[in-house]
């Protein structure tokens, strides 16, 4: 048996991560890799990437799912639930507070200056994450070609993310049979062992009993997750009616969670169409403001659904004009619960199946190809963000370009941490905005 990690130690780390996980999914994944693979050595590089590739296949926030997966692997189902809840809970609480300030006291002018510094930092973080993950995933020309095709597919051809994932999986499926050596992770892991030493959950660590696959276990967890979601919705319907805003939010955000391939930005058009156009929970301008607030908080960006739920509950005065905050908080909680519940079910039910494929190149090659494609997708996201931040309105924003360039050098060359980088860029943006530079 491998040495065990105290549950209390893991709990402290997941709570800390929930408060410092800025930078979107790419930055969050890079942060977990640096801490859990490189520094703490809780999990090996190969098993980390194996879990990440599975999470990339799923709809929903992949960084949250990766935290759930690693927590589950370390400490069974309670560990996965604690890791996932602590990863998202701080951002939920912070967004509820920011949403209340936003609605109670109007727009916050100070946010604009801070955001002018944070946005270039986010571009640098996404670019740095693409570099970090790509340097460990893309080890030959074929994987580089897959990454390049993914970049062109999404940035130039505007193909949907699920189609890109399917294409990469098919390429890996074929490549795993024709050229399996090109999809092995052994070379990268050899360097990992030499550099960082053995991991608590290493490549050759036996699969723990709770992570062994069985059809009965998969069915039991899947039914339990579906039962929890159905019971929560039926409770809302019983208390407030099936046509109430809260019940509609539960169903709407469940559908959004199941469609969110490619992360928050891929599902935002669907959320805008439903929340703004169909249900009228908030206006288009409020949606944009919510996205800006979401960018300033830790945790998954898809947590912007909490802002949508809060504004919807507040604007509809669900509990009367004297309980607007309570109505908003209820809307945010419902949006968060139904958005993230499917992710827990996917990991806790499917994790054992994924663990059973380790070491089988024919089974893991599609996941390796998907990981390479995701590098191209992340790079395209950096380009998209860069266009929005550095060329807003079609004119160069030299202040943002300067902050972004310095942030990129600090991140890649001097290995500055994510949180110091964001704080420094936020301060720079606020100061420069104050002096009208």
UniProtKB/TrEMBL annotation:
<feature type="transmembrane region" description="Helical">
    <location>
        <begin position="396"/>
        <end position="412"/>
    </location>
</feature>
<dbReference type="InterPro" id="IPR014047">
    <property type="entry name" value="Chr_Tranpt_l_chain"/>
</dbReference>
<protein>
    <submittedName>
        <fullName>Chromate efflux transporter</fullName>
    </submittedName>
</protein>
<feature type="transmembrane region" description="Helical">
    <location>
        <begin position="366"/>
        <end position="390"/>
    </location>
</feature>
<feature type="transmembrane region" description="Helical">
    <location>
        <begin position="51"/>
        <end position="74"/>
    </location>
</feature>
<keyword id="KW-0472">Membrane</keyword>
<keyword id="KW-1133">Transmembrane helix</keyword>
<feature type="transmembrane region" description="Helical">
    <location>
        <begin position="252"/>
        <end position="272"/>
    </location>
</feature>
<dbReference type="Pfam" id="PF02417">
    <property type="entry name" value="Chromate_transp"/>
</dbReference>
<comment type="similarity">
    <text>Belongs to the chromate ion transporter (CHR) (TC 2.A.51) family.</text>
</comment>
<feature type="transmembrane region" description="Helical">
    <location>
        <begin position="325"/>
        <end position="354"/>
    </location>
</feature>
<dbReference type="InterPro" id="IPR003370">
    <property type="entry name" value="Chromate_transpt"/>
</dbReference>
<feature type="transmembrane region" description="Helical">
    <location>
        <begin position="419"/>
        <end position="436"/>
    </location>
</feature>
<keyword id="KW-1003">Cell membrane</keyword>
<feature type="transmembrane region" description="Helical">
    <location>
        <begin position="108"/>
        <end position="130"/>
    </location>
</feature>
<feature type="transmembrane region" description="Helical">
    <location>
        <begin position="142"/>
        <end position="175"/>
    </location>
</feature>
<keyword id="KW-0812">Transmembrane</keyword>
<feature type="transmembrane region" description="Helical">
    <location>
        <begin position="301"/>
        <end position="319"/>
    </location>
</feature>
<feature type="transmembrane region" description="Helical">
    <location>
        <begin position="81"/>
        <end position="102"/>
    </location>
</feature>
<feature type="transmembrane region" description="Helical">
    <location>
        <begin position="218"/>
        <end position="240"/>
    </location>
</feature>
<feature type="transmembrane region" description="Helical">
    <location>
        <begin position="12"/>
        <end position="31"/>
    </location>
</feature>
């Amino acid at each position: 048996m491998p040495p065990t990690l105290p549950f209390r130690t893991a709990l402290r780390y997941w709570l800390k991560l929930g408060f410092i996980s800025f930078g979107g999914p790419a930055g969050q994944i890079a942060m977990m890799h640096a801490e859990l693979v490189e520094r703490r050595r809780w999990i090996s590089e190969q098993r980390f990437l194996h879990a990440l590739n599975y999470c990339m296949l799923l709809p929903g926030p992949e960084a949250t799912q990766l935290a759930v997966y690693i927590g589950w692997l370390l400490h069974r189902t309670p560990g996965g639930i604690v890791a996932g809840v602590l990863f998202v809970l701080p951002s939920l609480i912070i967004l509820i507070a920011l949403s209340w300030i936003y609605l109670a006291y109007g727009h916050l002018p100070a946010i604009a200056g801070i955001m002018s510094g944070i946005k270039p930092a986010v571009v640098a973080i996404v670019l740095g994450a693409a570099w970090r993950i790509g340097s460990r995933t893309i080890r030959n020309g074929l994987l580089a070609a897959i990454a390049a095709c993914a970049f062109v597919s999404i940035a130039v051809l505007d193909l949907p993310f699920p189609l890109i994932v399917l294409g990469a999986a098919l390429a890996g499926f074929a490549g795993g049979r024709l050229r399996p050596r090109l999809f092995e992770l052994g070379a990268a892991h050899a360097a990992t062992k030499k550099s960082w030493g053995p991991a608590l959950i290493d490549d050759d660590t036996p699969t723990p009993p709770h992570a062994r696959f069985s059809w009965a276990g998969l069915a039991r967890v899947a039914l339990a997750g579906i039962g929890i979601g159905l019971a929560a919705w039926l409770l809302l319907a019983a208390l407030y009616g099936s046509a109430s805003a809260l019940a509609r939010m539960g169903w709407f955000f469940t559908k959004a969670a199941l469609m969110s391939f490619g992360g928050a930005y891929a599902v935002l058009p669907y959320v805008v169409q439903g929340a703004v156009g169909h249900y009228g929970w908030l206006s288009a301008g409020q949606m944009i403001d919510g996205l800006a607030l979401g960018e300033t908080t830790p945790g998954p960006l898809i947590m912007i659904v909490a802002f949508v739920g809060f504004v919807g509950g507040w604007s509809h005065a669900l509990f009367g004009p004297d309980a607007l905050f309570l109505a908003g908080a209820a809307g945010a909680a419902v949006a968060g619960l139904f958005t993230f519940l499917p992710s827990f079910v996917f990991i806790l039910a499917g994790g054992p199946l994924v663990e059973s494929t380790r070491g089988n190149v024919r089974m893991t090659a599609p996941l390796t190809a998907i990981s390479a494609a995701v590098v191209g997708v992340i790079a395209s996201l950096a380009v998209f963000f860069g266009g929005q931040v550095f060329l807003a309105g079609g004119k160069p924003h030299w202040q943002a370009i300067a902050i972004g360039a310095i942030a990129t050098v600090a991140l890649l060359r001097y290995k500055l941490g994510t949180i110091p980088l964001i704080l420094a860029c936020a301060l720079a943006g606020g100061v420069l905005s104050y002096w009208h530079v």
